[in-house]
């Protein structure tokens, strides 16, 4: 998002398109081809569209002679669809499989950050689960980013137990006006201050699925396993509150994965590893019959779409005219990509400073190493104490491999889904120095390549840069040709998952009472 703050640069101003040619180009990083992640164990368990047939002969299984506690324990290992199938097999299992002991577990597993205490607004967790089926994946995977032209958008989806709804709000970042300080190591270089504040844009939900909507109530009260008739193909109107709608309507659509082909426009882009991808070339290609799921096994839990349009009417009961219709595709990130580990501590969602474009969100991707780290390769030196040796082994285990910063949101120059910088090797091979200046004292500095372009992503190229690894939660990028240093900070996603952590609503001014 552009702002009116004036930014200073030590050498070349990147805000002027004609200046792009003044910065020397370096070799492009190798672009990945269809990075796919393997689904975790149990991802598709219990998701069969057709349950196994139940024997009709009068043989009585020893299973029914077990104590009810053991039967409950066995049923707890079944997925929701298998549990619903078991309840339709006989009267005994019908009562046991509908127990809230089983269904509370399935609801709780899909709502990270929220501790459930009741199935409100329903009488049972089973009814609550059915009301939002098959949309629980929205809250389960929580982080979603879309293909909105150039800039993109990132939202956090979560379950609100107070109202029984699944909502998704845009994640935004704000910062105070910047200051510019000369760098001790080179007084021609300016350091841009950066103290961002991230928050949810709670004024207007992007996703709103109400458990008490007509569709949800019909699902919750329908006997037997959920029907698949038009269940996955149909668009679902979202009940966006009237005071935030402003004449804009939204429908929610499930998506169907495709096998990516060369030159096919897919989401997420190839720069981001994913278990599957969907088409996003056009409205016809995205929501046509070929790309909509017809049954549960075809519906992706990694993607969805939103159709939005403005409706012009002359009255409440007069058919309106659709204007400005658009379809946006959303994808999630595999938790492996943004969950830091002891060996890959920089993985995560970060927010970066992009001068006049404002704050942008990034995925810091540390790919797994092809060759496991061999501790025996680090030999103790004669003048090295055991503690120093252990510290060096840890350093060489952590600082190895590639670090990629991929834009989840973008700007008119370098859009969403593109690399913003790549450090090809953060080990000794890419090591430049250890910072001694007071501002970055002790930070590891490695070679990197920064990605720049003119507006509308024209004439893009990579330029020389250096990554200053201040800590596992804060880094800086020295753009050599531009003569400035900008910062990146880790975003704590967990703080946004519970509605109980939301700030209180702003008080309404007296003059705004007419809008209530």
Automatic annotation (TrEMBL):
Any coiled-coil regions, as ranges: none
SMART domains, sorted: FBOX
Keywords linked to the UniProt accession: Ubl conjugation pathway
Segments of this protein annotated with the region Disordered: 25-54, 279-301
This protein's pathway: Protein modification; protein ubiquitination
UniProt domain F-box: residue ranges: 60-106
PANTHER family documented for this protein: F-BOX FAMILY PROTEIN (PTHR10706), F-BOX ONLY PROTEIN 31 (PTHR10706:SF130)
Protein name: F-box domain-containing protein
Organismal lineage: Eukaryota, Fungi, Dikarya, Ascomycota, Pezizomycotina
């Amino acid at each position: 998002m552009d702002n009116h703050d004036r930014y200073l640069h030590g050498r070349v101003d990147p805000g002027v398109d004609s200046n792009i040619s003044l910065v020397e180009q370096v070799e492009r990083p190798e672009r990945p081809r269809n990075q796919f992640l393997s689904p975790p164990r149990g991802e598709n368990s219990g998701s069969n569209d057709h349950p196994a047939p139940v024997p009709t002969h009068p043989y009585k299984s020893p299973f029914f002679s077990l104590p009810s506690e053991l039967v409950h324990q066995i049923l707890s290992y079944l997925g929701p669809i298998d549990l619903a199938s078991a309840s339709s097999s006989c009267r005994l299992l019908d009562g046991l499989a509908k127990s809230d002991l089983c269904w509370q577990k399935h609801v709780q597993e899909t709502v990270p950050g929220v501790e459930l205490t009741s199935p409100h607004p329903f009488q049972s967790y089973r009814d609550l689960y059915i009301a939002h089926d098959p949309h629980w994946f929205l809250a389960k995977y929580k982080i979603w980013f879309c293909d909105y032209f150039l800039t993109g958008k990132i939202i956090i989806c979560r379950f609100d137990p107070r109202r029984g709804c699944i909502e998704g709000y845009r994640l935004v970042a704000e910062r105070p006006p910047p200051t510019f300080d000369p760098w001790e190591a080179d007084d021609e270089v300016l350091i841009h201050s950066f103290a961002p504040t991230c928050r949810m844009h709670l004024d207007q939900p992007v996703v709103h699925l109400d458990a008490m909507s007509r569709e949800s109530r019909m699902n919750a009260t329908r006997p037997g396993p959920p029907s698949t008739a038009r269940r996955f193909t149909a668009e679902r109107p979202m009940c966006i509150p009237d005071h935030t709608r402003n004449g804009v309507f939204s429908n929610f659509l499930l998506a169907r994965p495709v096998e990516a082909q060369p030159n096919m426009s897919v989401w997420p882009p190839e720069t981001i590893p994913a278990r599957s991808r969907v088409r996003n070339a056009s409205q016809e290609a995205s929501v046509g019959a070929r790309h909509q799921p017809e049954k549960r096994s075809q519906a992706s839990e990694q993607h969805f779409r939103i159709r939005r349009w403005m409706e012009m009417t002359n009255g409440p009961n007069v058919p309106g005219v659709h204007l400005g219709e658009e379809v946006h595709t959303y994808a999630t990130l595999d938790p492996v990509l943004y969950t830091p580990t002891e060996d890959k501590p920089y993985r995560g969602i970060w927010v970066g400073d992009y001068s006049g474009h404002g704050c942008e969100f990034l995925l810091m991707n540390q790919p797994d190493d092809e060759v496991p780290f061999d501790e025996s390769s680090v030999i103790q030196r004669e003048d090295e104490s055991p503690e120093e040796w252990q510290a060096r082994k840890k350093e060489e285990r952590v600082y190895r491999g590639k670090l990629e910063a991929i834009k989840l949101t973008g700007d008119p120059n370098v859009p969403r889904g593109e690399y913003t910088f790549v450090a090809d090797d953060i080990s000794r091979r890419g090591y430049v120095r250890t910072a001694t200046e007071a501002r970055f004292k002790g930070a590891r500095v490695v070679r990197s390549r920064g990605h720049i372009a003119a507006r509308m992503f024209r004439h893009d190229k990579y330029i020389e840069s250096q990554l200053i690894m201040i800590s596992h939660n804060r880094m800086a990028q020295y753009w050599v040709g531009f003569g400035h240093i900008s910062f990146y900070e880790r975003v704590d996603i967990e703080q946004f998952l519970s509605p109980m952590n939301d700030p209180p609503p702003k008080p309404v001014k007296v003059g705004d009472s007419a809008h209530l």
